[in-house]
Backbone:
């Protein structure tokens, strides 16, 4: 191994959300001189505006730093950022695979959380050297000794020389850097072997096309290299290789052990799939690096423009977004109630919210979103298996042999006082109890198997509210299981509103139907006439409510009042109108389409 490669350290930071990953990353950048104070606009690694606002990391990135260690040598440190949410587990696992070591950041007041554990297991699977960092020791409620003990008890890591840090106050930063140099091994790999680069992220640049973030494992790549994507066989010519410092900087080549980016006039991020291996088309590697997986959407919903005329704009916006988001899928669909729109697939609920928000904010679209659902597997009586991504597409009853739905294994970590509350919630959500473990410090890890559909229906919000915010959740898909499922339809004014149809468990169908009809009665504003709401299973009406007719014009209230009040009221109505959809003779607000998410029966 050359000296350059021997002095490389590739590492990432794993942490539960809010334990201080971004703050620590910024301190490390600052300490190594990668940033001047002025450049340090808040948190650099969370680069998108949306991320900054929501305070979460949704895209991972890599930064190359130079660090002169106490041994007098200069080391090249590549810090690879990882997303911090369950929706993006696969991306986390690929960014971990690009590293030899990880800083495990644990909040000194909170201790270990479910997400911390999930990420530690991913890191251990990837054979990473783990350096525990107990952060936020400046907090009055910090209990670093307890947290160190917890790291030993729960994870089984030696925490005796865990670094005590405060990313906020700048304590323990140099110690962290010294530990990275001393403990994390340099990357292996032969710079003269056939090229193997692992893509751990990609993004779309309007001028340069899809740019891949890569870890070079074997060989080297430079401008002019003809590269091949091993999953698809597609070839491209490299026009630029470089590193982020954090500003992008071209370099002559990237060799084994290095981390950087590759530009090759690639038009679509779909051709730069996370986890794929890039090789040299003329001297290809025999096989790809292990671990490539096509990501599959778990959650689907319909997206419709409020104004039918915006349909083409919505299509353009989705096309543009997809350039940046290889995990987003969509296809046109038509709803009797909502007209032309798209059925979109997402990695999870957060991913769905992010896409929806970007469409509205960056593309200025007003959208109606239908309630999210999972993909069902229908085993038909004729032996065919049909995948259903939209409740309205469920085959007729007589054709259905069985319906299967996706299940997850959920790990909930919670203080022992709340165990009862969590168990009750999991029962309500059709969960099957698997295991309960007491871990240090009065905390309990509960394992349940639950239908994914129940998780996407307000599980997380309920969990947070019933545990006063103390519980943390992690889940993974464990496969499909047969369930007693039925389709629940809603009729408004006698008309079936397809966008309201949901698939529910037979035992819950009656309660859900009643609750839904009741919610809709409150959510749909009064019209000039009476509107009956019916919840129907098959041919059977299971609930009926009535929206009473409106009596007075809203403005009538203001007669005699001052004009500014009147204007305010009109303005307010206009605001409200934005998210209304005229369906037949009834105006339905966005909230009504999501009503099913907020009934807990
Ligand atoms: N008191 C104190 N607060 C800290 C420290 N480090 C981070 N914080 C605060 O904790 C909050 C979360 O920090 P982030 O760095 O954004 O956490 P994160 O882990 O990157 O969160 P995600 O990006 O959502 O995964 C912020 O309000 C920080 O200011 C620390 O050492 N002490």
Residues:
């Amino acid at each position: 191994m050359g000296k350059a490669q021997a002095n490389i350290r590739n590492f990432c930071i794993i942490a539960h959300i809010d334990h201080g990953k971004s703050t620590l990353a910024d301190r490390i950048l600052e300490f190594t001189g990668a940033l001047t104070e002025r450049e340090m606009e808040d948190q650099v690694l969370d680069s998108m505006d949306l991320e900054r606002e929501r305070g979460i990391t949704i895209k991972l990135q890599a930064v190359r730093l130079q660090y002169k260690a106490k041994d007098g040598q200069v080391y090249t440190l590549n810090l690879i950022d990882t997303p911090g949410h369950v929706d993006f587990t696969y991306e986390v696992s690929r960014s971990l695979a690009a590293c030899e070591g990880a800083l495990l950041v644990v909040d000194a007041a909170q201790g270990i959380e479910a997400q911390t554990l999930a990420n530690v297991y991913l890191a251990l699977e990837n054979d990473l050297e783990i350096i525990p960092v107990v952060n936020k020791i400046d907090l009055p409620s910090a209990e670093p000794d307890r947290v160190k003990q917890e790291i030993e008890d729960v994870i089984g890591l030696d925490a005796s020389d865990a670094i005590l840090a405060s990313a906020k106050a700048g304590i323990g930063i140099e110690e962290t850097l010294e530990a990275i140099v001393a403990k994390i091994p340099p990357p292996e790999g032969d710079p003269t072997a056939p090229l193997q680069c692992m893509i751990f992220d990609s993004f779309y640049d309007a001028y340069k096309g899809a740019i891949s973030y890569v870890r070079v494992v074997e060989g080297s790549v430079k401008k002019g290299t003809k590269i091949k994507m091993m999953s698809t066989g597609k070839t491209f010519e490299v026009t630029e290789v470089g590193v982020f410092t954090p500003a992008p900087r071209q370099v002559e080549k990237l060799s084994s052990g290095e981390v950087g980016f590759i530009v090759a006039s690639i038009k679509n991020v779909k051709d730069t799939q996370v986890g794929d291996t890039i090789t040299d088309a003329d001297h290809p590697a025999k096989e790809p690096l292990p671990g490539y997986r096509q990501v599959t959407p778990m959650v689907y919903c319909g997206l419709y423009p409020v104004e039918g005329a915006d349909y083409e704009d919505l299509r353009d916006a989705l096309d543009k977004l997809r350039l940046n988001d290889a995990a987003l899928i969509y296809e046109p669909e038509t709803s009797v109630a909502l007209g032309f729109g798209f059925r979109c697939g997402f990695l999870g609920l957060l991913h769905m919210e992010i896409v929806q928000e970007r469409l509205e904010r960056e593309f200025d679209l007003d959208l109606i979103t239908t309630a999210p659902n999972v993909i069902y597997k229908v085993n038909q009586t004729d032996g065919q298996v049909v995948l259903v991504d939209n409740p309205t597409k469920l085959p007729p009853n007589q054709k259905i042999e069985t319906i299967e739905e996706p299940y997850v294994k959920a790990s909930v970590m919670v203080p022992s006082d709340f165990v009862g509350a969590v168990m009750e919630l999991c029962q309500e959500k059709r969960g099957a109890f698997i295991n309960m473990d007491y871990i240090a410090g009065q905390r309990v890890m509960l394992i349940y198997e639950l239908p994914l559909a129940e998780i996407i229906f307000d599980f997380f919000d309920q969990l947070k509210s019933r545990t006063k915010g103390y519980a943390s959740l992690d889940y993974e898909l464990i496969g499909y299981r047969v369930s007693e499922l039925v389709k629940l339809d809603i009729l408004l004014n006698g008309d079936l509103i397809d966008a309201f149809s949901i698939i529910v468990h037979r035992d819950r169908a009656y309660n859900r139907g009643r609750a839904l009809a009741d919610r809709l009665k409150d959510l749909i504003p009064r019209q000039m006439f009476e509107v009956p709401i019916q919840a129907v299973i098959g041919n059977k009406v299971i609930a009926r409510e009535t929206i009473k007719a409106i009596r007075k014009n809203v403005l009538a209230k203001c007669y005699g009042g001052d004009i500014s009040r009147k204007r305010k009221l009109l303005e307010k109505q206009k605001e409200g109108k934005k998210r209304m959809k005229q369906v037949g003779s009834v105006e339905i607000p966005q909230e009504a389409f999501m009503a099913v998410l907020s009934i807990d029966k």
Q: What stands out?
A: Residues 15, 17-23, 46, 55-57, 84, 135-136, 138-139, 166-168 surround guanosine-5'-triphosphate (CB under 6 Å). Residues 299-370 form a domain with the Alpha-Beta Plaits fold (CATH 3.30.70.870). The longest helix spans residues 506-523.
